Amino acid sequence: ILLQEYYNQLNSGAFMRSATLKALAIATTDEAGTDLGPDYVYGWGLLNTERAATLIKLNGTKSLISERTLAQGEVYNLLVTTSGFGPLKVTICWTDPEGVPNVTGIINNRAPKLVNDLDLKIIKNTDTFLPWKLNPEAPAAAASKGDNILDNVEQIEITDSAPGQSYIIRISHKGAITKGPQNYSIVASGVGGIAYCASTASSTADSRIDKVSLSNI
Question: Which end of the chain is more exposed for a tag (fewer CB within 10 A), N or C?
Fold first, then answer.
């Protein structure tokens, strides 16, 4: 409630979407457990409300909190420049449409339940960075990085990002967007400026970046 109140004060009376608040809370947690990333014991870590409030305060300068929608076939590219204000960390979250309940009677059914499977990637030159993912078949194992097909939250952290480097944040999706377009939220820290670009429908994973305006801190 305090974070919503603070956001409301700084954004002309607007409130965050629930997915935005969730992404913000996850993006600013303190690490818990023995391994980096999420786990089945501590989730994404311990809440750090002060850090979350700082990202709200720095939105548009050294952080980014953005609420968007993704249409069928759309690929959204956002060019950012790292600031050195912490590592580059990007989190997306969306409220997925209701799915179909299992009728088989299988306990702890492992079949993916996502209806709209959004994908987050970060690209720098020829390098592509993928989000954290957990393996429900091995719940004690540490999180790895790869294609996450299970969760409505995806996060990428590049701990060795240096100030002044350019990265492309790419949001796309698999399959069909049900009951679309799909609302989603982006929370990014460690960025030194915000680049806005037109998102275009595309049948390929590569869409052109254009209309970019970049301001560095």
Answer: N
